[in-house]
Design brief:
With 232 residues, the chain is an alpha/beta fold. It has ten helices and seven strands. A five-stranded parallel beta sheet has the order 4-3-5-6-7, sandwiched between helices. A two-stranded parallel ribbon has the order 1-2. It is globular.
Amino acid sequence: MATNPFAHIICTPDCFMNNIGKKQIIYNGYHELAYLQNSHYKPNPQVLDEIGVKATNKYAIIRFVSWQAAHDVGHHGFSIESKRSLISKISQHARILITSESPLPEEFEKYRIKVSPEKIHDLLYYANIYVGEGGTMASESAILGTPAVLMSSLAKFCGTQIDMHSNYDLLYYYDDPELAIQKAVDLIQQPNLKKEWAEKRQKLLNDKIDVTQFMVDLIENYPDSLDKIKNT
């Protein structure tokens, strides 16, 4: 990264796949835990009233990205045909809510999420499933205890998503849209899905550190904090 030469320390999760060198400080957690750990985040059920659903109603969050970021070059997600297939099949089992970086085709507009952006984590928390092209939102869903199916040819290069899949079975990633859609359909039909994922989520939270506290301690006690981190 262009900013690395100017940094004194660079903090990365232990699942990060690159060795940055002497500046690297490795911690047992994820970036997303800094704002979604249960000690720092409390979901607001009022968001369900805003979208007109009851706690017993099933709904799915679907995320489409623009594929315009620098790291997206040469990678892909759902085609328009596979988007139609995904929406058609999931809508048989749950209400569809779509969030999209790029303009939506007119046929999908009726599914667009109409709540303010800061409430998206509340929607993810109460959702029955997340399916989409957005890796960060997939990771956030998994941390919140919502099954996540990520359709992205980038996921196999992301240590966070690999860790969530391999060690906690909270998230699944594919670069084949048909496999992603089939997995999502299979999951949404499973009974007690949210209960099962809540248990997996708790295992993850038990294993990981409090990332916010780690960063506060690191910054407030710097540079003495570096010795403590290196010793532990």
